[in-house]
Design brief:
- The protein has a 3-stranded antiparallel β-sheet with strand order 4-3-5.
- About 40% of the residues lie in helices and about 15% in strands.
- The chain is built from 15 helices and 27 strands.
- The longest helix has about 45 residues.
- The protein has about 500 residues and is of the alpha+beta class.
């Protein structure tokens, strides 16, 4: 940064070629800038008697005095002398700043215009930094040295005056700074608040789990996962989550923790299975016999009891393969149909109890049975073993009894035939009467066609019945003839 040179003062460029009076006014041209010195005559003609400078914009008063137009007094009557003015403007001169190094050479008429652009004129810095310097130095000064020049912050890329840059760097949001809590992180200044609020591991905070501890965030990360009594941990048995401070209490009631059966049956199980185990499985629980015998034993003892010892257990009869309670088995054996027993009539045969009745009815020799001719009124009861002897001894009596029975049958058949003949005769009469009724009711034939048809069917059925009865009579007659032949042969045999 350029230091301000207090010896330099800003200059009015166009006035540098003119004489300055004690009152601070600029009048005629300076004589020392001319390339040639004026002669005494020229001094008389071209020098203003009032400002002692070369006439600028020559004016002539009414009394013939000539002076610069800027030296004219108030209300003084004058008129210009253009010819002399043009001569003066053609005087050769140097730049008034030749001592500073300006090598310009021209006329007085062009000198003021030159000074408007002369690089050696001293002016105040256009950026208003207060520094006075030659025009030639302005560009370099404004780009490199002026405290009021605009520079861009290399961090946030915003524009600032150079004099404000240092102050800006103290607050620039994009400048890299080290965390003030010495966590080691470098960041932009505008991220510091966010970093301290959310990220910095050195910021002290209360434990978020509410245990009351106040630690740095870095310490809290370890604290909340490993040390905090309020941290959530998972029970290794039931996989549920609990606060660490509640875990010990939970383990005393955890349903999935392995425990030994309280009745010392030796089984290890989850705590939530204990009630079910005691209710249904544990062999040391005492229960009443499920079969209702009244005994109270442990389940292990009951397993043997109900199969081997209980009087209410179900057993299978070895004879009939049916199931009975053990206490009823003896009673059952007294009536079991498959138990082998001897014949009640003491014939000596052994058989299943359910075969006894059949044996007695069909085979037992000691059974008294009716004579085969009982239907012919032989009332003798004989043991089965003596039946053949009885038939041989009573053969003639049996034949007589059978003949008497046949004669009774013939009589009954004759009576039956007479009844059937009478029935047929009655039906014939009925048919005759019906035919007469049908003839007498000729006018009603049309109306009674259905009735007649039904009666015709009845007649046909009756005729069929008569025909079948006739066939039956023929068969009975044949049977009577056969029985007569049998009786004849019996009589011959009897003689």
């Amino acid at each position: 940064m350029a230091k301000r040179d207090e010896s330099l003062q800003p200059e009015v460029a166009r006035y540098l070629c003119r004489v300055r009076t004690e009152g601070g006014n600029y009048r005629g041209y300076k004589k020392d800038i001319l390339t040639e010195n004026l002669s005494e005559r020229d001094n008389t003609v071209f020098v203003c008697p009032r400002c002692k400078g070369i006439l600028r914009e020559l004016c002539i008063s009414t009394d013939g005095e000539q002076f610069c137009s800027c030296c004219k007094k108030e209300r003084e009557q004058t008129h210009p002398n253009i010819h002399v003015n043009n001569m003066i403007l053609c005087f050769k001169c140097y730049c008034p700043l030749i001592s500073r190094g300006c090598d310009w050479l021209g006329t007085l008429g062009d000198c003021e215009n030159h000074l408007d652009t002369c690089g050696y004129v001293q002016e105040m810095c256009k950026l208003k930094c207060g520094v006075v310097l030659q025009r030639n130095d302005h560009v370099t000064h404004e780009k490199e040295n002026c405290v009021q020049r605009i520079v861009k912050c290399e961090h946030c890329e915003k524009n600032f005056k150079f004099c404000e840059l240092t102050e800006h760097l103290d607050v620039c949001p994009k400048i890299k700074v080290l965390c003030e809590l010495k966590c080691g992180l470098v960041m932009c200044r505008d991220k510091v608040a966010q970093h301290l609020e959310k990220e910095c591991g050195q910021v002290e905070e209360n434990c978020e789990l509410g245990c009351g501890m106040k630690l740095t965030r870095d310490e809290l990360r370890i604290h909340v996962t490993d040390n905090c009594v309020q941290r959530v941990v998972t029970c290794e048995h039931c996989d549920k989550n609990f606060k660490f401070c509640e875990l010990t209490e939970h383990l005393d009631v955890c349903p999935k923790i392995k425990v030994l059966c309280e009745l010392k049956c030796g089984l290890v199980m989850c705590r939530d299975k204990v009630a079910q185990h005691l209710e249904k499985e544990c062999g040391q629980v005492e229960e009443n016999c499920e079969l209702g015998c009244g005994m109270k034993l442990t389940r292990d003892e009951l397993r043997i009891h109900v199969t081997d010892n209980c009087v209410q257990r179900v057993v299978t009869c070895e004879h009939c393969d049916k199931n009975f309670k053990f206490c009823e088995l003896t009673e059952h054996l007294d009536v079991c149909p498959k138990v082998e027993v001897s014949c009640k009539l003491k014939c000596g045969v052994v058989m299943c109890r359910d075969k006894v009745i059949e044996h007695i009815d069909r085979d037992c020799k000691e059974k008294e049975i009716e004579c085969p001719f009982a239907k012919y009124k032989c009332v003798k009861l004989i043991k089965r073993q003596y039946l053949d002897t009885h038939l041989e001894e009573k053969e003639t009596e049996h034949l007589k009894l059978k003949l008497d029975a046949i004669e009774d049958i013939v009589v009954k058949q004759s009576e039956l035939i007479e009844k059937q003949n009478k029935t047929i005769a009655d039906q014939g009469l009925m048919i005759t009467k019906q035919n007469e009724t049908i003839t007498g009711q000729g006018d009603m034939v049309t109306k009674q066609n259905e009735t007649i048809t039904g009666q015709g069917r009845m007649i046909r059925k009756q005729n069929e019945t008569i025909a079948s009865q006739g066939d039956m009579i023929i068969k009975q007659n044949r049977k009577i003839e056969t029985m007569s032949q049998e009786i004849g042969s019996l009589n011959k045999n009897a003689k």
